[in-house]
Design goal:
Number of domains: 1
Number of strands: 0
Order of helices and strands: HHHHHHHHH
Number of helices: 9
GO molecular function, one term: amino acid transmembrane transporter activity
Keywords: Cell membrane, Membrane, Signal, Transmembrane, Transmembrane helix
Radius of gyration: 17 Å
Strand content: under 5%
Membrane topology: Multi-pass membrane protein
Protein name: LysE family translocator
Main location: membrane
Shape: globular
Amino acid sequence: MPLNLWLSLVALCAMGAMSPGPSLAMVLRHTLGGGRSSGVVAGVSHAFGVGIYAAATAWGLGALVAHYPEAFRVVMLLGAVYLAWLGFKALRSGSGGALEAQKASTSRSMAARDGLLVALANPKLILFFVALLSQFITPDMSVAGKWLVVLTAMVIDGAWYVLVALVLSHSRVLPWLQAHSVWINRLTGVVLLALALRVVMGA
């Protein structure tokens, strides 16, 4: 995969990981309730769940591109509609949301369980990866190329949530994020809409 294409993948995976939602709320809850180590464990565990969905999507898209190009185009467009819906939802959301998670007693084993389950219990990740990875999967892509895509998605997701746990373990950061959550949601919405437009243009 060319470096510029890989950097685009990194940027899009980062935008997806940074989107506020149940995953952020879960990492935040474990960070507040179990400390920095529990938040880090939750983030790493969530990345493994993301990797499972990313791998399933990458190999499924590869087969779809090779054998059913028209069906692949339809799947891309459906993924774009989903991204646009996420974008509009983020733009319309107010303050708080995922940043309003409450402190609760937890442990590293509970954090590991919840991190994996929150990722696997969210089938919408498949739709997100269909829209995202459709920009990078080609019929002649090698197995190593597909694994590069999957590992990139995993590492970016894990790195983001580990960073969240490290940063939010400092008490001054969370109030600032909560105070600016409206603008965080709006920025996320704009990015998702832009990604949806890119998918449509690619289709």
